[in-house]
Design a protein that fits this description.
about 5% strand, mainly alpha, 7 helices, 2 strands, about 210 residues, elongated
Amino acid sequence: HVLAGGKEELQPRIFPETHEEINEIMDGDKNKMKETEPEPVEEEDGSHLPPGMFEQSTIRRVILTLFFANLFFMLDMGILPAGSTVIKTDFKLDNAQFGSLGSVVYFGQTIGSALSSVVMRSCSPKYILLVCLVLNICSLISFTLTDIYPLLIVCRMCTGVFQIFFGIYMPVWADVYGSKRQKETWLTYLLISSPLGIIIGYGLCAGL
């Protein structure tokens, strides 16, 4: 209370004084928190994506496409070392030349990795992967049609450059478009496609 001009004036109270007032304020705060708190949503397949973006069947087809594309890419990594004796004889290569032929693909993958972040931001990943797939096929066909050693090196390096775009984009796709339950499974399948392709490549070469 404040005395002003001989009269007693009541000032508004800032703090509650009774237990009833305190409980009333606390109940009001709880109701506000319930109103603003988002309701837990159980994640269904595809519920984490914006509506109308992709159907789950489309996403699964893309995952299968990436899986088999990477598997077939890796066949080459198994066939080359398994057929080293025949390749060295046919192309008249010594050990150093054959070693360079096998390792230059990793040099190409290093170049592709450095370029991928810039290229992926400049264009749609769909078109980039399609172009890389076509160019990878061209480099493999060129490799089988020539016996000139420098061209063989160039073809192998280009193969590594075009392959790595799929290897980089596969985990990104699985992480973005997979639900919490799907991500682990999809990443496992996509990552296992590389060693599986190499094993199949060894087996095919041994069978032939």
